[in-house]
Amino acid sequence: MGKTSVAAAIIARLPEMHWTAFKITQFGHGFCTANGEPCDCQTDEHTVAVSEERDPASGADSARYLTAGAVRSFWVRTRIGNLAAAMPRLRKEFAAAENAIVESNSILGFLRPDLYLSVLDHATADFKDSARLFLDRADALLVHAGSEDLAPQWRGVSLRLAEGIPRFAIAPPEYMRDAVIPFIKNRLHPNHLSQDHLTNSRS
Q1: What are the DSSP E strand ranges found in 43-149?
Q2: End-to-end CA separation in angstroms for the chain
């Protein structure tokens, strides 16, 4: 649904923030946390893996953050429900970052970001549990252009959760409309630019 593209667009449009970017992926049974490949190694050592992306040309989503201008980029992998095990390392990296942008919904279970943007598609019925859980905490909804005039098709999601939340249409290839950037800047007050944590919807 373009969440990585949205995060990359924010990084590119706000280079003065000197972003450190984090992509959080949670794997279910049968996948190795170390590399995201199918496996049977359901061991304690493979509960969490955190790696720093150093090659902008690797083709990974975390590399796209570097290409967009991020100062540093990390890929965080955990089993579903085990994000808490990665938080000590993440908090250390957050403390070292000038500003952090995190592609994740689940991170809201452990911290309160200065700005939370939820990327949605009204035409898509599937809705991640983590996105539903924190929908009412969103500062703004970024809705895929072409679906913004449709009644949301989300299953099991109360539309009241999204009432009163500002909405902005987004579309490829830029995945960022000019109106969104002033909104982000206004929310990230200049007096609080140190260690701001901007999260963008993901797993």
Answers
A1: 48-53, 72-79, 99-103, 115-120, 140-144
A2: 12
pTM of the model as a whole:
0.81
Cis status, amide bond into 152, omega within 30 of 0 = no
Radius of gyration of the chain (CA): 17
pLDDT at 16: 94
CB neighbours (10 Å) of residue 27?
22
Q: How far is CA 103 from CA 52, 117, 163, 199, in A?
A: 15, 10, 23, 6
The answer to whether 140 touches 183, Cβ cutoff 8 Å, is yes
- Please report which helix (H) or strand (E) contains residue 180, including its range: helix 180-187
Q: 10 Å Cβ neighbour count for 192? A: 10
- CA-to-CA distance for 196 and 94, rounded, in angstroms? 9
H/E segment holding residue 169: strand 167-170
**Per-residue model confidence as pLDDT tens digits over 108-122:** 999 999 999 999 887
Mean pLDDT of the chain: 82
The pLDDT of residue 144: 84
- DSSP code, position 55: -
81, with CB counted inside 10 A (0-12, 13-18, 19+), is exposed
